Amino acid sequence: MTSRLLLLAAVLLPGQLFADADALATKPDDWFRSDEGHRTLATVLSWQSPQGSWPKNKDTAAKPYTGDREKLEGTFDNKATTGELRLLAHAFQATKDATYRDAFLKGYDHILEAQYPNGGWPQYFPPGKGYPRHITFNDGSMVRLLDFLRDSQGYDFLDAPRKQKATDAFDRGIACILKCQITIAGKLTVWCAQHDEVTFEPAKARAYELPSLSGGESAGILRFLMTLEKPSPEIIRAVEAGVAWFDSAKITGIRFERTNGGRIVEDPSAKPLWARFYDLETGKPFFCDRDGIKKATLAEIGEERRSGYAWYVTSGESVATDFKKWPHH
Fold first, then answer.
1. Cα–Cα dist 316/323, whole Å
2. 16, 144, 182, 296: most buried by Cβ count inside 10 Å?
3. pLDDT tens profile 293-303
């Protein structure tokens, strides 16, 4: 459990506040059999969409959903769905109440159905039009799904055919990650936050989220790959290349402050930072406002985006730390 929570911390970005289902999944068995547990679980179930997923940016364990459930829009983005499913799995194991098992299986089957044949997942399923169709690494979405499917092999109530489907889905997902790793001038680097679901090429999301080398999502992908048992030579190569990129892309001597309108402060003692976006051609950090035009410095974009987005991350430190402990290099 500890390693899984550490991995989740690595791939989540600032501002994601709804970790309640994940946290509740670690409660002792007695809690699930208590009145409080029953009330909480009923609340979580009220938020499950007709497809089997849960909406993002909602505290699904705090207050029951009272609207039209047919209009609930579930997603895999922003930490949604996998936490609720972990909670329900523990609930069934602790109580043997079939209600929790059935709701879990609905969500579980939805995840398996949502995977593209090439191994990627969209933001939600069915994905509709636009960037939600892309293979989504953003906010750790695909890494969380793979981590969940791997952990689900330990659920004794899952039947063998589902476990085999999950194993196959996991293997396809790893293959997809390797296909998406960006090569520049013949050299493997890292990943974009989202990739085209057909060509695997780096893709655009929102107006200020242009195709790029990601200093945020790539850290979670690398740390996840380093948790794989018996990694193939291709996985080892991918990790080594990604770690080398992080070392070359680190930024020293500055601090990023999201307060005061978002600004850069010179600080020789500051820990290394990594930009959220690096240009695919120059390899340099860039910044972007809602007009979709690249800027070389943070000061060139408006205050709303300067302070309203995680332009810098520290996750490269955890990549280096994990790599030092990784026995396969």
1. 11
2. 144
3. 999 999 999 99
At residue 1, the pLDDT reads: 39
How deeply is 81 buried, as exposed, middle or buried, from its count of CB atoms within 10 A (0-12, 13-18, 19+)? buried
Q: Does domain 1-180 have CATH number 3.30.750.24?
A: no
Q: What is the pTM of this model?
A: 0.91
CA 127, 56, 65, 29 torsion-angle sign: positive
Q: Which of 78, 101, 138, 306 is catalytic?
A: 78
**Would you kindly state where each structural domain of the chain is located, as residue ranges?**
1-180, 181-329
In one-letter notation, the amino acid at residue 104 is F
- 305 belongs to the catalytic site: no
Helix (H) / strand (E) containing 135: strand 135-136
138 is catalytic: no
181-329 carries CATH number 1.50.10.20: yes
How far is 195 from 136, CA to CA, in rounded Å? 7
Amino acid letter, residue 146: L
- Give the pLDDT confidence of 173-188 residue by residue, as tens digits: 999 999 999 999 999 9
